[in-house]
Design brief:
Oligomer: single chain
Number of helices: 5
Number of domains: 4
Largest sheet: 12 strands, mixed
Length: 363
């Protein structure tokens, strides 16, 4: 693995660096990537003035956000930390109330054009990639939030994410939406990915289950007060599951508002209820129960980036605790040290058979 520090115009500030001590790049599906690079203190000046870190072998681009230098007993060490290029969108926010309506991908691309690709607010080098065709219906209202936060909270209920792909030849960063692949044995389009202690490709397992803070039914309360307050019920619980109610105060969502162009807009009663419903869906997605598996896998059996990757839905089997689980890979640690690469995937949200059906219907 080699890395290169880049300036704001994507010009190299250093020759390719391959003598670093370690690099841990944590890829995330529903939040920004993070990384930590440990190398000789001799690179301090370059790192201090760098805007980006480019991991050449993987093609990943990160923002340089932190530089820590230390000198202990003559051992000079530098730790550079930051986030993936997706975090660029957090540098722009919505200024006024904005309604995302119509189809999902066109609505988010239009949001990006208006707030991050036009005029003095344009992010240098950021352009739109070709659309991927995610045209699920959407209607939601946002005000005063970073664009990155809007992207993740909007895409999570659909099982989607967004990327910022760096092209070193064009010196541009391409924005687009993407989805992990279904690699369970119940489908036939993709190769299967089963991590099992019996197969010898599941080396370590750490299982966590936590239902505290889990709700599956929301009362979403909008504008007005008392008996006139608009309240929408959102039920996301599987059939037969215990109902766990939560009240969501959404009075910030308005049926009448002034948009970013200074024009007054009015939503119909049905449109406003759809906006409230979308808020309920997103909040319940955040309030899901925490069930995850941290696992170190043998990449010699299933090939990373070929047989499994971030966002993919896989199967995990641990016979010692009778665990058979279908889940999405929501995070992956790529650990580079001593000229070796180690991969540690984390399997996050649980994907039920009902969720798979919903996802196929929405496509």
């Amino acid at each position: 693995m080699t890395v290169i520090f880049l300036d704001p115009e994507f010009n190299p500030l250093s020759a390719p660096i391959d003598d670093f001590r370690s690099l841990v790049w944590t890829r995330n599906y529903f939040e920004h990537d993070t990384y930590a690079l440990v190398l000789s203190g001799g690179y301090f000046v370059v790192a201090r003035h760098a805007r980006y870190l480019w991991a050449v072998d993987t093609g990943r681009l990160g923002l340089v956000l932190g530089v820590r230098y230390s000198d202990e007993g003559g051992r000079r060490e530098l730790v550079v930390t930051g986030k993936g290029a997706e975090a660029l969108l957090d540098l722009r926010c919505t200024l006024h109330t904005t309604t995302l309506a119509g189809e999902l991908e066109p609505a988010l691309r239009d949001l990006l054009i208006r707030h991050a690709l036009t005029g003095e607010r344009a992010l240098p080098g950021v352009v739109l990639d070709a659309p991927a065709g995610f045209n699920q219906p959407i209607r939601k209202q946002v005000t005063g939030k970073p664009l990155g936060e809007i992207m993740y909270e909007t895409l999570m209920p659909f099982g989607l994410s967004y990327y910022m792909r760096f092209d070193p030849d064009e010196k541009k960063i391409f924005f687009g939406l993407w989805s992990g692949k279904d690699r369970t044995q119940s489908q036939s389009q993709n190769t299967f990915s089963v991590f099992s202690s019996s197969f010898g490709n599941l080396l370590t397992t750490e299982y966590v289950y936590d239902r505290e803070g889990y709700y599956n039914f929301a009362y979403v309360a909008g504008e007005e007060t008392g008996a006139n307050r608009v309240i929408v019920e959102v039920d996301q619980g599987p059939v037969g599951e215990e109902r766990r109610e939560v009240f969501i105060d959404a009075r910030d969502l308005r049926s009448e508002y002034t948009d970013e162009n200074g024009k007054k807009r009015t939503l119909s009663a049905n449109e406003y209820r759809e906006v409230l419903r979308q808020r309920g869906i997103e909040k319940l997605a955040e309030m899901n129960y925490k069930e995850s598996v941290n696992a170190e896998v043998d990449v010699g059996v299933l090939r990373y980036g070929v047989d499994f990757d971030l966002g993919d839905i896989c199967e995990i089997v641990n016979s010692d605790i009778s665990l058979t689980w279908t889940a999405r890979i929501t995070s992956i640690d790529e650990v580079f040290e001593s000229d070796k690469m180690r991969v540690v995937p984390r399997f996050g949200e649980k994907i039920s058979f009902i969720d798979v059906i919903k996802r196929e219907v929405l496509r």
